[in-house]
């Protein structure tokens, strides 16, 4: 079996494996609401066209998620997809057609030669496999307008524990050949305490996943996983400082620590230092999703937005009715299981009638002013912060 280049690898294993009529839900970072919230503080001028580039778009998750979320919000614009793999592009094209997206153009080729001007660039799962990420980022930065932003998914160094030693074993035995049957044999031979097999997110389901998932997870031609700090340095150097790792709950270590003294010490650290502690402490973040922008770091001012009556609250993938009845039933502390894009976390929420009414009202995408007539500022603030921290809520500021 011959060694595969990145292009031939994804011709053989178009990723992720999706049916030609699969409509993706709202995926991060490729959700218009999330992009507007994090990159433009909830503001997108009425009438401004949104030009997006989906770089290394694979089988089309990002174009479908972005396209459908733009349509939902009545945002005009275009989405340009580029990928080396023709097989992936064909699936992406069918999915875009199935979703009746008429503003998508598809190009088969390298990201490195794309030209044009974009407001937003989506780069999901590509940094981990490109040989020269610094050069790629410099090129992408040159395509962004001055207030342009990027949404990125990269592999997380700590959460990928076990992958690198396995790849070393595989390469030594198999060379550059990509052979999922051989990989499965090698995996079966590993003892249970091997770090890959013991990895709770990447190792426990290896005998249940298909060849495409197995190949992408373990056998891609290159493998680069980055820590939060490495990503921050890489993006700073490219002139694209990171604005936010999301969901922010996963990158804030304060709630892991009980002692006031330790929490005070944390408060004196930089955003990236705290996020690095969170990555090291949790250990299972095998992907980092984040937004970066030329205009730099400026975490969204939640309080400033909640002070405005006209700000609209947009729930994301939230079972408003189910959560509302759980909150109504439990007056003090309700533990709600939240699946945050692959990571399961349980969040404790102060329950009660007001919290329940707040969540029920979200279904109608209310304004802050509309909520204020029946819900206290304290509950609006508390619930909004919490749901924003798990990416279940975004803000939109109306513009004329
Ligand atoms: C792991 S897949 C991710 C696909 C998709 N972005 C997602 O997150 O679902 C990586 C994709 O990047 C593409 N790719 C890698 N390097 C590329 C390059 N230099 N130019 C264009 N596409 C590239 C591959 O062909 C593959 O489809």
Account of the protein in words:
Helices cover 40% and strands 18% of the residues. The protein has 17 helices and eleven strands. The strands form three sheets. The chain has a seven-stranded mixed β-sheet with strand order 3-2-1-4-5-7-6, with helices on both faces. The chain has a two-stranded antiparallel ribbon with strand order 8-11. Strands 9-10 form a two-stranded antiparallel sheet. Helix 6 crosses helix 7 and helix 14 runs antiparallel to helix 15. The relative contact order is 0.13. The structure holds S-adenosylmethionine. The site of S-adenosylmethionine has 23 residues, from helix 1, helix 3 and strand 2.
List keywords for this structure.
alpha/beta, Rossmann fold, binds S-adenosylmethionine, 400 residues, seven-stranded mixed β-sheet, globular
CATH class of the largest domain: Alpha Beta
The structural domain count equals 2
Q: Indicate the overall shape.
A: globular
Enumerate the spans where pLDDT stays under 50 for 5 or more consecutive residues: none
Content of β-strand: 15-25%
Number of DSSP E strands: 11
Ligands, deduplicated: S-adenosylmethionine
